[in-house]
Design a protein that fits this description.
The protein is of the alpha/beta class. It is 40% helix and 19% strand. The protein has ten helices and ten strands. It has a five-stranded parallel sheet, with helices on both faces. The protein has a three-stranded antiparallel sheet with strand order 1-3-2. The protein is elongated. It starts with 8 loop residues before the first helix and ends with a helix. 26% of the residues are buried.
């Protein structure tokens, strides 16, 4: 016999009145494994006070200050003023949150790992992005994926929504973030192997920088891409399998390859520094925590320098 039992009316009404909680529970039922890894990684980082404190609208008491002629009489804190010969105004804290947009390269070349004990570049990029997002959410920041339909939001629901979108995102983009509109105080966290043509990378970076966006770039590197440890007869295939190259003695081109790879990586870093952006190189055979600490510290330092 079919089970026709229904939830109590109060429970159904509560879910309707609290759609955010219902969304959080729905997202949590199928939590992507990489989010679990990201949460474990972010938990290892000591989170400092990330909100910027300044007087303004809010609920949290910040400080008392002397009454001035511009203040309305309703702003006077009479209890504190009774303790002195002067009038005092109670100021509340204004937490200034800023939108942080994430772009994780999902192109086919990111699905590469040169050894079974190494993560694919796309997995390391995803874990770093989600771990950083987790830290920022704890600090009261608004986060979102660039190019997504959901605007920047605060809280764990925003983090889980971001994780599910990254997990469900089909491969095939060209690796470059879309030229989406962002606020002038926005921050872009761009994680990629940055193996696209340098001209295309520069054009996209300058487009964001000219709009006032602050960028934080993390280059994800598989050790074989940088070290080129191959010897003998080796066939190299493009991710699309549309282009292949066969070398008889591949070690003969090792020096030239390493020089070109290093030059390309350095050129991306130079472009970032010229725009006042931060550039970090991270190999997948190194601890992810090291990269996360560096990236999170860079974002916190840049925010302080910008006066937030």
């Amino acid at each position: 016999m079919a089970n026709t039992a229904q939830a109590p009316q109060g429970a159904r009404d509560g879910e309707l009145r609290n759609p955010v909680r219902a969304e959080a529970e729905r997202l949590g039922t199928t939590l992507p494994p990489l989010l679990v890894a990201a949460e474990q990684l972010s938990s290892a980082i000591v989170l400092g006070v990330h909100g910027r404190r300044k007087a303004g609208m809010g609920e949290t008491f910040w400080q008392f200050r002397r009454y001035s002629i511009e203040d309305p009489s309703t702003a006077v804190d009479w209890r504190q003023s009774a303790k002195s010969q002067h009038l005092f105004v109670r100021e509340r804290e204004w937490e200034v949150s800023e939108s942080v947009w994430f772009w994780r390269d999902g192109s086919p070349g990111m699905r590469f790992a040169s050894a079974p004990n190494l993560p694919q570049k796309i997995d390391r990029a995803t874990v770093l992005s989600l771990a950083l997002a987790s830290l920022l959410v704890r600090g009261g920041e608004r986060i979102a994926l660039l190019g997504g339909e959901t605007p920047p939001a605060m809280g764990r629901v925003a983090l889980r929504r971001m994780a599910h979108r990254l997990a469900d995102m089909p491969p095939g983009n060209d690796g470059l973030p879309p030229a989406a509109s962002m606020s002038r105080t926005g921050t872009l966290v761009w994680t990629s192997d940055f193996l696209q043509p340098l001209e295309a990378i520069e054009a996209r970076m300058r487009g964001f920088a000219n709009a006032g966006v602050k960028g934080f770039l993390t280059q994800i590197i598989d050790p074989a891409e940088e070290d080129f440890p191959f010897t003998g007869r080796v066939r190299f295939e493009a991710p699309s399998h549309a282009d292949t190259t066969l070398f008889g003695k591949v070690q003969n081109i090792r020096a030239d390859y390493r020089a070109r790879y290093a030059a390309h990586s350095e050129a991306v870093g130079v472009l970032a520094r010229r725009l006042g952006w931060h550039f970090l190189r991270h190999r997948t055979d190194r601890p992810a925590q090291t990269a996360l600490i560096s990236l999170f510290g860079a974002i916190g330092g840049a925010r302080a320098a910008r006066g937030f």
